[in-house]
Specification:
The chain is α+β, with helices and mostly antiparallel strands. It has 6 helices and 6 strands, in the order H-E-E-H-E-E-H-H-H-E-H-E.
Length: 136
C-alpha cells in the first residue's frame, strides 16, 4: 500500500497525459460528421460547393469552456508531477481537484460547443435542431 501511495501522483500524471490525447480523438458524433476535440475547442470551417462556387462556412466557433477543460488537465498533470518530485500533499490535492472538474467538463463537451451560423443555416434547411443529434 505504501508503494502505491508513493507512486499515486505519478500514475495520475500519466493518466492525465492520456486524457490530453483526447484532444485529437473524436469528441462528438454529429450525424455522419465526426468532430474532433481540436475542432470542438478551436472551431471548424468547411468548404461547401454551392452551385458553381465554393463557399467557406464556419461550422463551429472557439469555445473557452472546452479549452478550459484541457487547461485543467494540463494543470493537473503539472501539479501531479510536482507532488511526486517535492512530496507535497497539497499539490496532489489541488491536482485531484483539477482532474475532477476536468472530468465533469468532458461530459459537458456538447453543451460547451459553440455552433456557428453556418451550421445553423444548414440545419434550417432540414428544420432540425443540430445539438439534438449529437452524441459523445
Amino acid at each position: 500500500m505504501k508503494e502505491l501511495k508513493k507512486y499515486a501522483s505519478l500514475i495520475s500524471a500519466a493518466l492525465g497525459f492520456i486524457a490530453l490525447i483526447m484532444l485529437f480523438l473524436p469528441a462528438i458524433v454529429a450525424g455522419e460528421d465526426v468532430i474532433k476535440g481540436t475542432q470542438a475547442v478551436f472551431g471548424w470551417t468547411e468548404k461547401i460547393n454551392v452551385l458553381f462556387e465554393t463557399k467557406e462556412v464556419v461550422m463551429l466557433e472557439f469555445s473557452f469552456m472546452n479549452l478550459l477543460t484541457y487547461v485543467l488537465v494540463i494543470a493537473g498533470v503539472a501539479l501531479s508531477v510536482l507532488a511526486f518530485l517535492q512530496k507535497k500533499e497539497l499539490f496532489a490535492f489541488i491536482a485531484a481537484g483539477c482532474f475532477i472538474v476536468a472530468a465533469v467538463f468532458f461530459f459537458c463537451t456538447i453543451g460547451f460547443t459553440v455552433v456557428a451560423e453556418g451550421w445553423n443555416e444548414l440545419a434550417s434547411l432540414v428544420n432540425g435542431d443540430i445539438k439534438a443529434e449529437w452524441k459523445l
